[in-house]
Each structure stands twice: as structure tokens, then as C-alpha cells.
Design goal:
The protein has about 500 residues and is of the alpha+beta class. It is built from 16 helices and 16 strands. It folds into two domains: about 110 residues, Beta Polymerase, domain 2 (2-Layer Sandwich); about 280 residues, Cytochrome-c3 Hydrogenase, chain B (Orthogonal Bundle), CATH 1.10.645.10. The radius of gyration is 22 Å and the shape is globular.
């Protein structure tokens, strides 16, 4: 603890709940605003019930020191909103209002975020009855004026994709404002993880976001290991890193293909569709699941690689990278593609910083944020991956950052396969320590994944908070559409490629 009421720790380090004393609200506010204002990241802001008390907890990161800090405060049914002075708290405060019926007074646009009843029976921030709550039933911003019109898209979309509602305020073809309404995929996973670890817990972690199985499962496992006072063996950590980078490569390659498809450039679209499958097949060859289910387990990796398997993965990786390089170069060297990518969907660096964007969406705005470098855990403490950034803040930047990351992920995998540590790949994990907390950060392919777990007096999970990178970045997509043609929404949307279920949980 480096100051009264502020608990300082590292990623994946266990600490006692008692090390996070309750601050007066003004001190809590100063802690959050000061930390974010100094370049820190707001990884989590959420509510809890402690008996009859309403608590708010905030976890912020100090990228210069590589440390995390947490503070809490007690509030009543209302408190002064942080969002006017800290825009990255916007959606967090909407979530707090919905889950705990605690109203952030002065919030600029307070509305439900997942459309469910609060966890405090008889309380609701908007005075709704549980039986009257309808997903998507909320007010929307409106722009008035001559020739201004509104376009509603979704929640049901063409194609097999998840549901989400998009409301465009337009003047002609130009988008003045895009408002995004989600919540159609809410499953109550955080509440289901209370009582963990248990037989179903790992399955819940693997399905938090289907295309980020490895990322979320790694975050969950590192949290459980910290609470139990154990560490995965070096070989198991390396295998986790290989799985995580394969997941990153598969999704980035798929996104490059999808972006090419959105501008009708079929060569790269076709090539990358096949190549994404080749990378997924590499994961499936190791653990039996193309999405990495069953690979990561508390204590390390459930699957090992012998020398022959490592050599085969290297061969497959080299073949994939040869083809991916050709497909990407076709994209960058085609003027008609670049004409659509460059200058489209700009989110300026200052806006990205203020809104708290993460992952490639932030790095495309020249923001050097990456958990693997700033808050490393597991194998990333010993094997670094340089942060990939670009500075044009547009669709091209978000695409090109993905390409840079593909190259660096491939180099990392090659290194790990050639230098796998000897020994066990999985260690037993005992019970969790009572009355303890941990914050587990993992750089998923979309950006920072944050899991916060707290145990009770019996050592069972009493509170579990998950923040998927999409939770930070949906507002970035809304900003990217401003003053752009509505016809470019598919392209801008794909350049972010955010998760509906990861947001809704």
C-alpha cells in the first residue's frame, strides 16, 4: 500500500481485501481522476454490496511503473458522476446504475447497458419494474434540423452474426451521430462465476467471448492460481503464450480478409479466409478444439508438445506466414483498397486517450498500450513482444497494426517452440486463500482483458468482475462514424470487430 486507501500491486498478485480501505468519496474521485489524468488506464470501475453498504471499486494501471492500484468508497443510492471529468468511466457508470441501482448524478447520458433487473430487489435506477424491462427499450439521442433523418439498423442483421442495435442520425448520407445499444446477449456469467472454482467455472471462462477463449481462460486461470498461491510451471506458461498468440494471429488474419471483403477486394478476402482456418486448425491439432477450449487450465496447460509436434507446428506456421505475407502485400499495394482505407473512420489520439480505448484500436492512434509489455505476466515476463503502433488513426491504421502484430506473434511462437522449457506443463492447484483479491490482466487480440476476483471467508469466489476489451471500444466505433458516409459503416465496424457477447456477459 503506497498511500492511505490505495492498494498497490502487480498483475496477478494476490492481496488481502483489508488492504483496500474505504476512502471518502472525494478522495476516491481524486484517486481515479488523478490516475487517469497522469496517463493511467481505468481497467475496472464497478459496484459491490458489503452487507448493507454500497461500495464502488476502481482499478487503475500505471504504465510507467507497471503497477496496478485499487481503491474503494462507500456511496448511498446516488453519487456525483465521474464521467464529465473522466469520459472512460462512461459505460462503467451506466453498468453500476443498472446492476446496483446506484445513480451517478450528472452523468451525460444515463441509460441501461444490458437491460436487466438490478441485483438489489425493489431498487432500479430508472424506476422500472422487473417484469417491464425490455431489451433495447430506451431513449436515443436525436438530432433535429432540415433534412436530418434517422436510420435504425438491427438488432437482427443479415448473416449469422450476434444482435446489436445501431441508431444513426444523418444529414443526407453523412452521419452526425451513431448510438449503439447492446444487451441482447446478456447471460449473467459474472454472477455464475460466484462460488468458483468449481466444475463449471472453467467452461464459463472459456465461453465469455467465443473468439477469445484462450485470452479469457488465461485471465481466469492466472486469477485462480494467484488466489491459491501457486504459479504455472515455465513450460506451461510458454504453451499458454503459444496458444494466445495463435488466437491473436487467427483473428487478425480473419479481420484483414473481412476488411478486404468490405471493399470488394476478393483476392485477399479469399486468401485470408482460408489462412484463418489454417491457423485455427493448428490450435485444434494441439488440443482438439479450433478455438482453444480445453488447452488452458489452472496450473498451466492441459496439453503438451513433444519435439515432433513442435517441429510440425513450425512447419505449418512458416507455410501460413508465407501466404499471409503475400495476401497482406496485395492489400497494401492496391490503390483502390488504400483509397477506401486511408482517412476513413478517424478517431483522433486525444479522443482515444480520453475514451480509454484499448488494443489495436488504441495502438492505431499511436498509443503505446499493451498488457504484454506494461503489465506482463506468465511467459511475457521473460519474452517480450514489441508494441505495434501506427499514427494515422483510421481504418488503414487499425488494419496495419493487425499486420504488424501478426508478424510479431509469429516470431514469438517460433521462439517459444524452439526454446520450450523442460519439465512439467501442469501443476496441481489447491484451494484459494480466504478474504483475498486479485486483478488478472491479459492482452487479448482485441486488447486488455481484466478479471477481478474476491474470495469470502471460506475461500470461494464471492465477487467476480470481467471487463472485455469491447466494453472499452464500442464508443470508439461510434466516434469513428462521425462525419463519414453511412455507407462506410460496415468497413468502420469491421476495423474494430468488437464482441457483442463479450460486452454483454
Amino acid at each position: 500500500m503506497d498511500a492511505p486507501g490505495v492498494c498497490s500491486f502487480t498483475n496477478g498478485e494476490r492481496f488481502a481485501v483489508a488492504d483496500v480501505p474505504v476512502l471518502p468519496f472525494e478522495a476516491f474521485r481524486d484517486f481515479v481522476l488523478g490516475s487517469v489524468g497522469d496517463g493511467g488506464s481505468l481497467f475496472a470501475l464497478y459496484g459491490e454490496r458489503d452487507g448493507e453498504r454500497n461500495l464502488l471499486r476502481a482499478c487503475v494501471g500505471d504504465p510507467m511503473q507497471g503497477s496496478l492500484k485499487m481503491a474503494s468508497t462507500e456511496v448511498g443510492d446516488r453519487y456525483p458522476s465521474l464521467t464529465p471529468d473522466c469520459p472512460s468511466a462512461h459505460w462503467f457508470e451506466r453498468e453500476i446504475a443498472e446492476v446496483w441501482a446506484i445513480v451517478p448524478e450528472g452523468h451525460p447520458w444515463l441509460k441501461p447497458i444490458r437491460f436487466h433487473a438490478s441485483r438489489r430487489p425493489g431498487h432500479d435506477a430508472w424506476g422500472r419494474k422487473p417484469e417491464g424491462i425490455v431489451v433495447g427499450d430506451a431513449d436515443f439521442f436525436q438530432v433535429h434540423g432540415d433534412e436530418v433523418h434517422e436510420v435504425a439498423v438491427g438488432p437482427v442483421h443479415a448473416g449469422v452474426i450476434e444482435p446489436g442495435h445501431f441508431r444513426f442520425q444523418c444529414h443526407g448520407e453523412t452521419v452526425f451521430l451513431l448510438e449503439i445499444s447492446l444487451g441482447y446477449q446478456h447471460r449473467g456469467v459474472e454472477r455464475a462465476l460466484v462460488g468458483a472454482p468449481g466444475p463449471k467455472s472453467i467452461a464459463l471462462a472459456e465461453t465469455l467471448a467465443g473468439d477469445t477463449t484462450v485470452g479469457h481462460t488465461t485471465a481466469y486461470c492466472e486469477a485462480v492460481e494467484a488466489l491459491a498461491g501457486v504459479e504455472a510451471p515455465p513450460r506451461g506458461q510458454s504453451l499458454r503464450g503459444i496458444a494466445l498468440e495463435l488466437e491473436r494471429m487467427a483473428n487478425h488474419v480473419g479481420d484483414l480478409g473481412a476488411l478486404a471483403g468490405d471493399v470488394a477486394y476478393l483476392p485477399t478476402a479469399s486468401f485470408c479466409g482460408r489462412l484463418r482456418g489454417d491457423i485455427l486448425n493448428m490450435t485444434g491439432w494441439v488440443c482438439g478444439s479450433r478455438f482453444g477450449r480445453s488447452w488452458i487450465r489452472p496450473g498451466g496447460s492441459a496439453w503438451d508438445l513433444d519435439d515432433a509436434m513442435s517441429a510440425e507446428l513450425l512447419r505449418r506456421l512458416d507455410a501460413v506466414m508465407k501466404d499471409v505475407t503475400q495476401a497482406a502485400n496485395l492489400l497494401w499495394n492496391t490503390p483502390s483498397v488504400m483509397a477506401r482505407f486511408e482517412g476513413m473512420g478517424v478517431v483522433h489520439r486525444d479522443s482515444a486517450l480520453s475514451l480509454g480505448l484499448v488494443g489495436p484500436a488504441a495502438r492505431a492512434c499511436a498509443i503505446e498500450t499493451d498488457v504484454r509489455e506494461q503489465y506482463p505476466s506468465g511467459v511475457y515476463r521473460f519474452s517480450q513482444i514489441n508494441v505495434s503502433t501506427w499514427d494515422t488513426c483510421d481504418v488503414f491504421a487499425r488494419a496495419y497494426v493487425r499486420w504488424l502484430e501478426i508478424e510479431r506473434s509469429a516470431a514469438f511462437i517460433r521462439k517459444q517452440l524452439k526454446e520450450l522449457a523442460k519439465g512439467a506443463h501442469l501443476e496441481p492447484v489447491g484451494p484459494c486463500e480466504a478474504n483475498s483479491m486479485v486483478v488478472s490482466l491479459v492482452e487479448g487480440w482485441r486488447g486488455a482483458i481484466c478479471h477481478v476476483a474476491r474470495t469470502d471467508a471460506a475461500g470461494r469466489i464471492a465477487s467476480y468482475k470481467v471487463v472485455d476489451p469491447s466494453f472499452h471500444n464500442w464508443i470508439g466505433l461510434a466516434m469513428a462514424l462521425r462525419n463519414n458516409p453511412i455507407s462506410e459503416f460496415p468497413l468502420c465496424n469491421k476495423s474494430f470487430n468488437l464482441s457483442y457477447c463479450g460486452h454483454d456477459l
